[in-house]
Amino acid sequence: MRALIAAATGLAAAIALVLTITAIGAPAGETSPEPLLTTVPEHP
User: For residues 14 and 20, what is the distance between their CA atoms, to the nearest angstrom?
Assistant: First the structure.
């Protein structure tokens, strides 16, 4: 029975955390217009 209560408490805490993060929203900001380099440029 204690395990069931602990699992329910943990699930409730996880859902509360997700809802809190969702309510706050993503931080405002802009993405860079420049593409990220995925390879090292060649040096002549």
Answer: 10
